Amino acid sequence: MTGTPGLDRADLLSQYSHQAPIALSPHAHNRVALHRTDEAWLDRAWADPATRVLLLDGGRLLVRDAGGTNGAGDAFDGDAGEPAPTWVTPSEAPTGTRILLGEDAETDAVRFAVLVDEVPAGMRGEILRTFVQDLGADEAALVLHAVALGEWHRANRHCPRCGGRLEVRESGHLRVCVDCGRQQFPRTDPAVIMVVTDDEDRCLLGRQARWPEGRYSTLAGFVEPGESLEHAVAREVEEEVGVEVGEVSYFGNQPWPFPASLMIGFFARARTTEISVDGAEISDARWFTREEMRAEAEAGTLILPGGISISRSLVETWYGGPLPGQW
Fold first, then answer.
1. Which residues of the chain have pLDDT under 70?
2. What is the pTM of this model?
C-alpha cells in the first residue's frame, strides 16, 4: 500500500477530453458568519420582508401536501406529487431553533432555517435525497447547509464530556454545555472516493451485495484518524478489492450531508490488477474498458451512479463524456 501524491488537478484533467461537472459544489452562498452573534443585525434581517426561512424537522426538510405552495405563496407542482423545500416568511415560521444560513447568491436576501419544535399540520418531513437532484444550484447550496446542521443538532443534544445539556449559540453553528462549558462545533466527516485506472486505462468499479443486479460504482471510504487522503485512497482500495495503487491525483470534492460527509474525489493509478474482494463491503469488482462500459450501460446491464454524485463525475470524466442510465 503506497498512495503517493500524483498529478496536480490541472495536469490530471488535461489528460481527459471531458471534465464532468461536480453537482452540489460549484455554487456557494455568502454565509455572513460575522453576523452570527450580531443580535441587532439578526433582528433586522428577521424583520426584513425579503427574508425567507427554510423549515426542517431535524435533518428532514418539511414539505407541504400536494397542491399547496412552496411557502410565501410560491407555487410548486403539487398535483404531480413532487415535493419541494418549504420557504416561508419569518412571520409564518413556526417556533423552533433558528439557524442563519446566509445570503441568497442571486438576490442577496437573507436566508434562515428553523428546526421546528413541532411539525405543522399539513406538512411532512422528507429526506433530502427525495428531490436534491431537482434543486437549482443556488437553492441546493442553502438546503445542504441547512440539512447538515439540522442533522447535527438532532444528533448532538448532550455534552460528550459530562452529559450536560448543550445550548445553541452563534445562530445554530455552535452548541455549548451549560454545565462544563465545553464547545461542540458542527462535524463533517471526510471520505475519499476514487476512480482506479490501470496501465491499459481500464476503470475499476465495485458493487455491494445489497444493491440491485448490475449496479456498480466507484470505491469509497472514510478517512481514518491520523491518515492522509492519499493513504486513505490506497488503504480503501486494497482493503476492499485487493488492488495496490501508487499515484493518487486530486479531482474535486462535493458536500454530501447524508448525514455529514465531504466526498473528496481522486484518480488512482493501480500497481496491481488482480482483484480479491473483501466480501463484506464489496461483493464484486470489475475492470471496464470504455467500450464495455458504454455497451453495458446502453443495454441496461450496467447501472451507474446518479447524476448528482461525484462518483458519476469521476466515471464520466474517465470515459470522456456522458453515459446512459443511472440509479
1. 1, 66-82, 327
2. 0.89
